[in-house]
Write a structure and sequence with these properties.
Structural class: alpha+beta
Radius of gyration: 19 Å
Distance between the termini: 39 Å
């Protein structure tokens, strides 16, 4: 996915063929993930795991203030925090989807609605 092109020679030089045991373990892990059929997967403790759809909500909420703010700022803050804290590269559209879900759940308010997060403003509802 996301690798700087100047780093590719390093990874190419260090490539190796997986053993049959490693291949079997990866296949088993993948089948297990398929059986779980979870809405979302994330790297947790160095392993891909099924997680609930609201897995990133706490990180999203931590970047939203009680004062009205652009949703784009909340999206950017969440992307940065999740990358720094967990190493998970979460897409902007997933965060935007969760912002709408958090509003529906009454945790945030959409002050100015818009079709995209670039034109939307939101605020956290005081607890």
């Amino acid at each position: 996915g996301e690798v700087a092109s100047n780093l590719m020679p390093f990874f190419y030089q260090h490539r190796r063929q997986l053993t049959e045991t490693e291949q079997a373990q990866l296949l088993s892990d993948w089948k297990h993930l398929q059986e779980e059929n979870a809405p979302l997967r994330a790297m947790v403790d160095g392993k891909v795991q099924s997680v609930p759809v609201d897995f990133y909500d706490e990180a999203i909420l931590s970047g939203i203030t009680e004062a009205e703010m652009p949703a784009a700022l909340a999206v950017g803050r969440a992307i940065g925090e999740l990358d720094t804290e967990t190493g998970n590269r979460v897409g902007d559209m997933l965060i935007f989807f969760r912002i709408r879900a958090l509003a529906q759940a009454g945790k945030i308010e959409i002050v100015q609605d818009a079709p995209t997060y670039r034109d939307m403003t939101i605020r956290k509802i005081g607890s």
